[in-house]
Amino acid sequence: MKNRDTFKKWLHAPPADHGAIDDLDRKALSGYEYLEKEDDFDASLNRLDQRFGALIEKETPKPQPKGVVRPLHHRRWLGVAAAVLLLVVPMFYLLNMPVSNTALFAQHFEAPRSTYLLTSRGDAAQDNQDLTNAFALYEKGDYQQALPAIKDLANTYPERKDLTYYAGISALAAGDTEEAIKLLELAQQSDYQEIDEKSRYFLGLAHLKLGETVKARQWLSAAESGVYGDKAKKLSKELD
Amino acid sequence: MLNPGPMQSLSTLTDEQLIEQIKTTGDTAGFRVIYERYGHLILGWCMRYLKQQAASEDATMDIMEQLMRNLSRYQIKDFKNWLFLLTRNHCFHKLKGKTAILLDDLSQIDGEDDMESDANDPLRTERIEEALHEQIESLNEHQKTCIVLFYLKKKSYKEIVELTGYEMTKVKSHIQNGKRNLRLTLEGVIKEE
User: Fold this and answer.
1) Separation CA B125–CA B94 (nearest Å)
2) Which residue of A has its CA nearest to B38?
3) Which residues between 197 and 226 in chain A have a beta carbon less than 8 angstroms from any beta carbon of chain B?
4) CA distances from residue A191 to A4, A161, B100, B119 in whole angstroms, order as listed
5) Interface mutation vs chain A, best among B16, B43, B80, B148, most A CBs within 10 Å
6) What letters, b where the CB count within 10 A reaches 16 and e where it falls short, cover A103-116?
7) Nearest residue of chain A to residue B97 (CA atoms)
8) B161: Cβ–Cβ under 8 A, 6 or more apart, which residues?
9) How confident is the model at residue B114 (pLDDT cuts 50, 70, 90)?
10) Per-residue pLDDT for A67 more than 90?
11) Between A1, A49, A189, which is nearest B37 by CB?
């Protein structure tokens, strides 16, 4: 196993001095040619260390602290202190926080019109009355009803990732954010680049709504090169 | 470096033993060891394909997150090779569209279309994409820079002129010659199939 130090030495050594390097190590080493600055090897890995540390922290189940029994008067004072904190902290938070994630979501989320439904001649889904009915609900803004209707269609025509995409948007608009994430992640694997790119933006918004800012940033960053690139950049900037 | 924590004993395990341990105990400490062993390799692989540092850092995190969530679903024999393929496919997905345009342009150089990837044969698509990246790396420096900037970083001719300092005619010629060289070498790879 070649560790970071070995890689760092390889970066500054001619290929003849690389010794026992296997093909997969060579491929990784060739990637480091695309570092923006020569000394970015450490900087890049340090950033990753921090992000990975945060990820591990998030994914590691927290042990429940065992209860400590305190005398009654301590508990009474603790109760008073907690009540004061409960009043003061949210007020301080509300007064000092420029815009909450929920507010940002509300500012930026708007369900797109269903104009990007993919059409093709002879497509059974296009002739389906259910499709017309489902998207009538969607266009009317009745996302609670549109969600199951469009989801059914998406299940019937799994290759039609545009349906999955609109089901994801409906879920997001209807407030079922976790379902929206599941659906949009599926839509994001679409062969249609535009659906893929739009799904990334809405995944950013969905994670923002759940308060998962790191993930929101990741998806928005992934959306920056797509059709919603300007929107994604604007939102990322507001998250900073 | 990360604070090693309880890595002492885990770090003595082979990859396969480590994965078994993680699957059995669900202990996230094992992932720290995997990250220590492979984080820098994943980043290098991502940069090899994506050619962008920030996007590669994001992709590395995506892959670690995917591993942490889904490792128990996989049956893995050669972890390093498996991880490379996972990373590569993740990058190919991220690049989807960009390499397709390049391959499409290459296929039009002399009117043949054997370069185009066939959506019904994902293995062939992967082989062609891998060969494409391998061949991009072996282009001369000028051609490689211009091809990467134009196709994979979506820069305009004008932006490439500003970024590289090459004259406009040189930029166009490096892209043209780079495409021709890619076409020639890729043809050889495809015929060997």
Assistant:
1) 15
2) A3
3) 218, 221-222, 225
4) 36, 8, 11, 9
5) B43
6) ebbeebeebeebee
7) A193
8) B167, B168, B171
9) low
10) no
11) A1
pLDDT value of residue A116: 60
Q: Within 13 Å and on the Cβ side, how many CA atoms surround B62?
A: 22
Whether the pLDDT of residue B171 is over 90: the answer is yes
Residue B162 near residue B113 (C-beta atoms within 8 A): no
**Per-residue pLDDT tens for B32-52?**
899 999 999 999 999 999 988
Least CB-CB distance to B48: which of A2, A31, A191? A31
* The residue type at B104: D
Within 8 A by CB and 6+ apart from B174, the residues are B142, B143, B145, B146, B147, B166
CB A130 within 8 A of CB A149: yes
**Which pLDDT value is given to residue B143?**
94
SS (H, E, C) A109-171: CCCCCHHHCCCCCCCHHHHCHHHHHHHHHHHHCCHHHHHHHHHHHHHHCCCCHHHHHHHHHHH
Which position has the higher pLDDT, A119 or A4? A4
- pLDDT band of residue B99 (cuts 50, 70, 90) is confident
Contact A28 B1 (CB under 8 A): no
pLDDT at B168 over 90: yes
> Is the predicted pLDDT of residue A32 greater than 50, yes or no?
yes
Asked if A4 has any chain B CB less than 8 Å from its own CB, the reply is yes
Q: Residues A133-191: pLDDT tens digits? A: 888 888 888 888 899 999 888 888 888 888 999 999 999 988 888 899 999 998 888 77
Closest to B62 (Cα-Cα) out of B31, B30, B90, B41: B90
CB contacts of B118 in chain A (<8 Å) are none
**Between chain A and chain B, how many beta carbons pairs sit less than 8 Å apart?**
100
Give A209's contacts (C-beta < 8 A, 6+ positions apart): A101, A102, A105, A109, A172, A177
Residue B2 token pair: 């990360």
Residue B28 forms contact with A (CB below 8 Å):
yes
The mean per-residue pLDDT over the stretch B117-130 comes to: 69
B74, amino acid identity: Y
Residue B112 has pLDDT above 70, yes or no: no
Cα A237 to Cα B55: distance, rounded to the nearest angstrom: 17
Extract the tokens encoding A3.
Answer: 């560790």
Between A26 and A114, residue with greater pLDDT: A26
Task: List phi, psi (to 5°) of A199.
Answer: -60, -40
